[in-house]
Amino acid sequence: MARSNQSVQFDLIAMFDEIPNCVAVFNEEDRIVYANESFRNAYFVEGTGQSWSEMMRENFRHQRGPIIETDDIDAWLKSAESRRGTDPYRSFEIELHGGVWLWITETMFADGAMLLIGSDISKLKPGTRSLRLQRDSALRASFTDELTDVPNRRYIMLQLEEWRKAGEARKNRSEACLAVIDIDHFKPINDEYGHEIGDRILVHFCELFLDNIRLNDLFGRIGGEEFVLFMPHCNVDQARARLSEVAAKVRSARPVAEYPDLHYTFSAGLVAVSQDDGVEASLRRADDLLYDAKDAGRDHIAS
Questions:
Q1: What are the b/e assignments for 24-33, b being 16+ CB within 10 Å?
Q2: 261, 240 in Cβ contact below 8 A?
Q3: Is 225 a known active-site residue?
Q4: Domain 5-142 in this protein, CATH class
């Protein structure tokens, strides 16, 4: 008699706990829903439910698990989270405290879940590791907005083009949405309160967005007070609902303690995009709708 699906599932879980590879699954909120014994030992987690950022912050505090070379863990986490999950598949290497090196692969799925697999590569070409780490660090810096630590225009354009090419290669089109977003009346804020306060508004805006989007959404700054949000596996109604939720939180926020009456809003142009569309053409369509949103009085999402 054929075994039930439940029996096979339990066998797989038992097998994963026996292998030396680290295996973990994160949901669309970037919380652990499964971790095998090797992953739990390497990353010092006891079970499920913990978010990736909570796990990494705790490891940094105790100087255990993956080595994180930074003097500012908050900035490091914000930068890492802004790119985490935005590639359908990526691979990289990390060093654990104690000298173990892991080759990590992360695979994203349509529902926003991520599968992480880590393999021990400690014995492979140890002499070239520092050079690879320096290269990776320089590459990350070239893809990051210096002020806000979110992806910059270069990274966004690269990821959008990769998404388009992936659809061509698979002949499997998936729905997605793209929004061009602009902070309303940003110049008057700078003029009245100064550029230091304006910069704090930009940082607050990015932090709020990153806290309220899915793991596989891509958010970044393309210049000044203008941003892009790319939402794969999402239709216009869903995208509008998500943007509206963020808009309500931005509207009610008072991000500068010294000026409790200072608040701000944003406007957005939202379009459905296809992997048959050109990236620049999709951005122009969204940008045209952004101007419609501003003409409608701002604090508005036009689609």
A1: bbbbbebbbe
A2: no
A3: yes
A4: alpha beta
